[in-house]
Amino acid sequence: MIMLRRYALLIYVGLFCIAFALAYFRVIVLPKISVTWHLQDRDRYQPNYVANNGAELALIFIGSSGCVASNNSALPEMVETIKLMLETKAVKRGRAFTTVGIAKDWVANAGTNHLAKFGMFDEIMAGRSWINKGVMEYIWTDFPGVPSTPQVVVVDQFVVVPSNSGERFQILGQEVIARKVGLVEIKEWLELGLPLPQLRTLP
Length: 203
Known about the structure:
- The protein is α/β, with parallel strands linked by helices.
- The protein has two domains: about 1-30; about 55-190, Glutaredoxin.
- Helices cover about 35% and strands about 20% of the residues.
- It has five helices and five strands; from the N terminus they run H-E-H-E-H-E-H-E-E-H.
- Helix 2 (about 75-90) crosses helix 5.
């Protein structure tokens, strides 16, 4: 049995050497072999963990673990696609890009677990239901909108990063340039290629 294995090994080695010699002298052409590594999350949004001075587009997603529409099985992939497409649009228009996930849940842990279904965000807020600080800002006070989930909001803004310790971080000139409420509006907006209005020239 051992002798048979040795003979088999010798045959394989011999065939390999013959094939290599024939290929070297171009008698035969060996197929090209390429090896690629599948990069996990390469088609998923990845925060870059950098804050720079300048114009920026922000995508705000507002959902809720207790909302039937927010738990639609197609929504996470839709939101992920929107992130990637908006990031590309932002870069083409000379802007940085960031994402914010807001969960309108009373229980913060339930909210963060819900947001985890939608991939990575640069910033998340969860807890306190309709008086969540993110919900207050993007639905009730600064940028009033329809009190419903799910929804996506796109904000054009300017980020100021201090160069000295005595200065303040600031976000200036915020303007909502798109708001899509409910599965139907979000899906239709995505199918149209996420059209946006003409962007302002920010300082």
